[in-house]
Design brief:
Layout lengths: L2 H18 L4 E6 L9 H13 L6 E5 L8 H11 L6 E4 L2 H4 L8 H6 L4 E5 L2 E5 L15 H12 L8 E4 L11 H8 L4 E6 L6 E5 L2 E5 L13 E7 L2 E8 L3 E2 L4 E4 L19 H4 L3 E8 L9 E2 L4 E5 L4 E6 L5 E6 L9 E3 L2 E5 L4 E6 L5 E6 L9 E2 L3 E3 L6 E3 L4 E5 L5 E5 L7 E3 L11 E3 L2 E5 L4 E6 L5 E6 L15 E3 L2 E5 L5 E5 L5 E5 L4 E7 L5 E6 L1 E8 L7 E11 L7 E3 L2 E5 L4 E6 L5 E6 L9 E2 L4 E5 L4 E7 L2
Parallel strand pairs: 1-2, 2-3, 5-6, 6-7, 7-9
Antiparallel strand pairs: 1-10, 4-5, 8-9, 10-11, 11-12, 11-13, 14-47, 15-16, 16-17, 17-18, 19-20, 20-21, 21-22, 23-26, 24-25, 26-27, 27-28, 29-30, 30-31, 31-32, 33-34, 34-35, 35-36, 37-38, 38-39, 39-40, 41-42, 42-43, 43-44, 45-46, 46-47
Helix pairs in contact: 2-3
């Protein structure tokens, strides 16, 4: 053995000994506690009492799904329970804490101090961050603002060879739309393992060479008592065992060796997103693109005055020129904007998680008025446009009050006078928050809430006319994220229970209901109101007759997009039906025949409901903070 090889081996041995020597520690690993579920609180209490009785536990991590539905009440209960731990506790949220968050994902960081963490224990650094999905049903996604935080943590490591553990909720695979972005980052460092939950069972994974360990849920499931994971570092090995509170710790069910990782030496090629579909439709181009740098769950609002309005998680509302993509003005709210704005007569209306509903002028984005509510506003408004034109289009006067309608997270649905933000009426009969955009139909305002029910209120006074719910109980099955559509006296919805339902708009009685199509939340209606559009969970988009008193197909197209559970609506404009999938695929169909006109892969992130300008041009936004104009050239 030559001197150079001996020197290299000696250096590696020295690095290994200084990095991993004397690092013994034991920690408790909780996951998927689901406070708010049937046994969630009792199971967590048992685990906390057990952890507190164990003097050799150094700290606790909780890898997401802290609550069942992310409500403020459930989060406060979870925080009060975890505060009784006599060890440091580090927590990240999971999809149940973020997708159904009545606060728009703001209560979690307020209660826990952050929705991310970083700390050192011995020679190791633990880094925790989550991947949502935030507010919108779709894949997990590493938010651009969180990736900047991670970059800052990694680039400021005092020792670039420090062994790292990453804690998150989802497995770092294709269930996260930009999974590879995270992996490309962590493989540049000495990452020992990714610790995650979500699957409710113990599991061993390999994420492109990076070790992955899944922990069981803290819930008891079919057992008489819940349980959690014990992690124990003994010199150069991490052992994981299952702990039954107050009973026993089983023998380790898995271990990983802790050593210097060199992922750069791996020459294997790993799957990456496929953009080859764009080669089939070379006439489809992205004409401009704007990136806000923050999560966007708001859909674009496109006006006739060459403006696009959209909000993001930084609380900024942007006014973008729709032909150039240049930002013209911006307005800053006090919290994230998940609300898709509404527009009338050069005035823009939207809500924010700061509990305000805003009215701003569209030209300069100056505030005309705001109305304070008792909780976050994450829903989108609908306008009652009742104007009589006199002396030409520039002179208009109201013949009766104009209302703007929106739901709130304080259990109240509101109608405000559009001119002053006062007056109107409130309906306080909700036991869940409102996320969707309400439908106005023949004197009624119709919307779903996360309390199982679809509501119909009188648009003039807010009186409850009827409410409807499906056969299966459970708030997570509520028709609350789909935007209802209506025609021929029927209201159409598709709920998370995979059922499509037609309801008599006058009486609230069920006309028909079917599980044939396996749908979820995505629905739309044709410009002539003769067809209702649905997207199935796998591959297909259909058109059904709105006039028939039973499910009657007009056309069905196997588009081939695979599995898709995006919440976004289907939108027709000038004879073209547009839809954006959970992984960035924009689809354009002939609205009358269902024939595919074109498809374009805009990226990997979930597309919000799109905003067509005409049959060839459409403005899209995604949860990666991007807004773009896509055009099919002649």
């Amino acid at each position: 053995m030559n001197m150079k090889v001996c020197t290299t081996l000696a250096a590696l041995l020295l690095l290994w000994s200084t990095t991993f020597a004397q690092t013994n520690c034991k920690f408790a690993w909780l996951s998927d506690t689901h406070i708010g579920s049937e046994t969630g609180e009792a199971d967590l209490r048992h685990s906390i009492a057990d952890i507190n009785a164990m003097s050799d536990i150094a700290f606790v991590i909780l890898s997401g799904d802290v609550t069942e539905m992310g409500s403020d009440e459930q989060l406060r209960k979870a925080k009060s329970l975890l505060d009784s731990l006599n060890k440091p506790c580090y927590v990240v949220p999971g999809n149940h804490d973020t997708k159904w968050s009545e606060s728009g994902c703001t209560t979690f960081p307020k209660l826990f101090g952050s929705d991310k963490f970083v700390f050192e224990r011995g020679k190791f650094r633990f880094i925790g961050l989550h991947q949502g999905p935030r507010m919108r049903m779709g894949d997990g996604h590493w938010a651009p603002e969180d990736m900047r935080w991670l970059d800052s943590v990694l680039t400021h490591l005092p020792n670039k060879q420090q062994p790292l553990f990453f804690v998150t909720h989802y497995p770092v695979d294709s269930s996260i739309s930009n999974w590879y972005v995270m992996l490309d980052k962590v493989k540049k460092y000495n990452t020992q393992a990714i610790l995650h939950g979500h699957g409710h069972r113990n599991g061993v994974f390999n994420f492109e060479g990076v070790a992955g360990i899944m922990s069981r849920s803290n819930l008891r499931a079919r057992d008489t008592i819940g349980g959690y994971t014990i992690g124990e570092v003994r010199n150069d090995t991490l052992f994981v065992s299952e702990r039954t509170p107050g009973v026993t710790t089983s023998r380790p069910w898995h271990y990983i060796l802790l050593n210097i990782k060199n992922y750069a030496a791996d020459t294997a090629r790993f799957p990456r997103p496929d953009f080859s579909i764009n080669l089939r439709y070379p006439n489809v181009k992205v004409k401009w693109e704007f990136n806000s740098g923050y999560t966007i769950t708001s859909s674009p609002l496109v006006t006739d005055y060459a403006h696009v309005f959209i909000g993001d998680a930084s609380g900024t509302l942007y006014n973008i020129d729709k032909w150039s993509g240049r930002v013209l003005r911006h307005f800053k709210a006090g919290g994230p904007i998940h609300s898709t704005p509404s527009y009338l007569r050069r005035v823009v209306y939207f809500g924010s998680t700061d509990s305000n509903f805003y009215c701003v002028g569209s030209t300069w984005l100056e505030k005309a008025w705001s109305s304070k509510t008792d909780a976050a506003v994450v829903s989108s408004p609908t306008i009652n446009d009742r104007w009589k034109f006199l002396l030409g289009p520039q002179h208009h006067y109201p013949i009766e009050k104009q209302f703007i309608y929106f739901g709130c997270s304080d259990g109240t649905f509101r109608a405000l006078d559009m001119s002053y933000g006062r007056g109107g009426w409130t309906f306080s009969g909700l036991s869940g928050f409102v996320e969707t955009k309400p439908l106005r139909y023949y004197g009624k305002v119709i919307f779903g809430a996360w309390d199982n029910y679809l509501y119909a209120l009188d648009e003039n006074d807010g009186k409850l006319l009827w409410k409807w719910r499906g056969e299966r109980e459970g708030a997570l099955l509520s028709p609350a994220a789909c935007i209802p559509v209506a025609a021929h006296g029927k209201v159409f919805i598709v709920a998370p229970d995979r059922m499509m339902t037609a309801i008599d708009a006058e009486t609230g009685k069920q006309v028909w209901r079917t599980g044939k199509y396996q749908v979820r939340e995505s629905i739309g209606i044709s410009e002539d109101a003769e067809r209702v559009y649905i997207r199935t969970l796998r591959d297909s988009i259909l058109a059904l007759s709105t006039s028939a008193n039973e499910p009657k197909e007009v056309w069905c197209t196997n588009v081939g997009f695979g599995y898709d559970h995006n919440y976004a609506a289907l939108v027709e404009k000038d004879g073209t039906l547009f839809y954006g999938t959970r992984n960035g695929l924009l689809i354009a169909l002939n609205a009358r025949t269902g024939k595919v006109k074109w498809q374009h892969k805009t990226g990997v992130a979930l597309l919000n409901t799109v905003a067509p300008i005409d049959g060839r041009r459409v403005v899209v936004s995604n949860v990666d903070g991007e807004v773009m104009l896509v055009e099919a050239e002649d």
